[in-house]
Q: What sequence folds into this?
């Protein structure tokens, strides 16, 4: 039996924080003591874990005393300020924000892809990648190892839950109005998503790419350990609650076939091939809520590029895209 | 003033048929006599046009007597059977189905791209392309003329209205149930679209592509008159009522830049550039309902492919994607 640990979850009242608690419970992570942490504003609230209520503590240096693992999901500025504090108290920090992802001294880890990189992190901080990137690299890592990826063109169909609890609430209001034929209120989303599409991430003024898209470029290279992989991304928010979907077109340094990809993915960790398209079987976002695996379907020889392959990848953006991946990193480090 | 014509609209009680009537009226097409045609089942119903009611006639050889232009949108089997009949009676037939699109003796026409090909059609039949293809080629034709397209990777975000009136009704029921947190009925769509995504077009068993996708491959080549253009398509239905969106990645036989593409499209017929992404301006499906132009935004140098460009193209699938394009062909032939 593994030693019981003191585990802090920072941002515990958020969507991903809540999912972290569920994942820790479901996977029977050896939590000896839970330390639920949030902002001053949420302190004093209760969260349920391990069959009892725990009081949320306001973030402060002393909450990290004796903590073995601190899982952060409270936004970039909180991570920037507090991950180093938690690490200095001796915790291993697994941070779900983008704050440290491209720091050369911080491993960016998806256990199925590059767990070795995450052992002995020099700053005691390990970064959890962007949700869209995680599910893509889980599906592509086995192909990269076999044939080395040269190029990825990816268009996303991203669920709103990645934008947080307030956005989800706004989406529910929008969906109700849209369904009843009423005017759709923008609410916390800031624009109409129900019955429409949005590209509402922060824009990089130089490249005119959304930051979400540049994360898919840079994080993919770092996780797969190949700075030459070329990624052409388009990130789109769709009116779906949970479950990111991705239309992916790849080419490798040598020709590959749909058949080879299907074989590579059939036994790959963290992947479930859901691909009998001639009989109408392919992954849908509604299939993936609460699922640990990344679902891959529509694997086909690229009609527009001999030797290339196209596929469709669906994952639970709150689980494998965030909470589950973070907990899996902790399991691999301490398991 | 142009001569007044006898115009038949076949499938007049359908979504596209109804849109054809609206487009003929709005553009003041010189209709001397309207001949509204549908199946036996819909015969006797009334449609409104030019300020008065017209009785829908059941399809039969005699309804095409004296018809100058017959606009068909009643499905492939009706077109296969009846377009030749209408043509044999002397009508010029513009067919919105896929029945004749790849027939080498039938021009496949988007007026902005290849109107010359549609003059003097040998079978008196002209095919109207697939909706997703039309909006894509309107946006890409000016680029093809300037730099010759080599490759297109396209992922679609298609509205339900392209699937017809019963599907739209089912979607409205689904949206209401989804918005109210109830179980979503499959209805005429056959699966849950509200709150999810579908890939529900007929599948080609050999290639494992949807027929909708292969149309984008083959029709693009025929319209642009270049059999070497390589198209890698993914077609996805999104929970949007009207307005198809497309994430498009292109490369040409010579390097191109976003700046050049923006200049080429700024003056292009049928295109409206909606592209100030740094200030949050880009096309959304909710912008395009009832719009004649294809909206193009997010034109950017491809971060994953130097010399290539990415863009986002949105169009009203019932108008430019179907009814408007058909009427524009008639205008160009007889104008």
A:
């Amino acid at each position: 039996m593994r030693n019981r640990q003191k585990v802090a979850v920072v941002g515990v009242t958020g969507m991903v924080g809540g999912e972290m608690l569920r994942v820790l419970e479901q996977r029977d992570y050896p939590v000896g003591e839970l330390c639920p942490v949030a902002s001053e504003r949420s302190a004093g609230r209760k969260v349920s874990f391990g069959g009892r209520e725990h009081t949320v503590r306001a973030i402060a240096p002393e909450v990290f005393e004796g903590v073995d693992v601190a899982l952060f999901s409270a936004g970039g500025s909180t991570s920037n300020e507090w991950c180093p504090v938690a690490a200095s108290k001796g915790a291993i920090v697994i941070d779900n924000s983008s704050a440290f992802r491209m720091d050369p001294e911080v491993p960016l880890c998806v256990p199925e892809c590059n767990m070795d990189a995450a052992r002995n992190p020099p700053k005691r901080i390990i970064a959890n990648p962007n949700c869209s990137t995680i599910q893509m690299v889980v599906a592509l890592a086995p192909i990269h190892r076999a044939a080395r990826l040269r190029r990825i063109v990816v268009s996303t169909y991203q669920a709103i839950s990645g934008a947080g609890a307030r956005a989800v609430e706004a989406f529910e209001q929008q969906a109700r109005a849209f369904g009843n034929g009423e005017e759709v209120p923008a609410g916390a989303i800031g624009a109409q998503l129900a019955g429409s599409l949005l590209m509402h991430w922060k824009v990089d003024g130089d490249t005119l790419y959304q930051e979400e898209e540049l994360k898919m470029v840079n994080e993919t290279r770092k996780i797969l350990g190949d700075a030459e992989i070329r990624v052409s991304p388009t990130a789109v928010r769709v009116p779906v609650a949970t479950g990111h979907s991705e239309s992916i077109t790849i080419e490798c340094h040598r020709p590959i076939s749909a058949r080879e990809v299907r074989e590579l993915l059939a036994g790959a960790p963290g992947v479930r091939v859901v691909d009998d398209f001639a009989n109408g079987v392919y992954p849908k976002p509604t299939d993936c809520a609460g699922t640990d695996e990344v679902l891959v379907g529509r694997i086909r020889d690229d009609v527009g590029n001999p030797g290339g392959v196209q596929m469709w990848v669906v994952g639970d953006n709150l689980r494998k895209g965030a909470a589950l991946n973070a907990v899996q990193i902790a399991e691999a480090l301490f398991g």
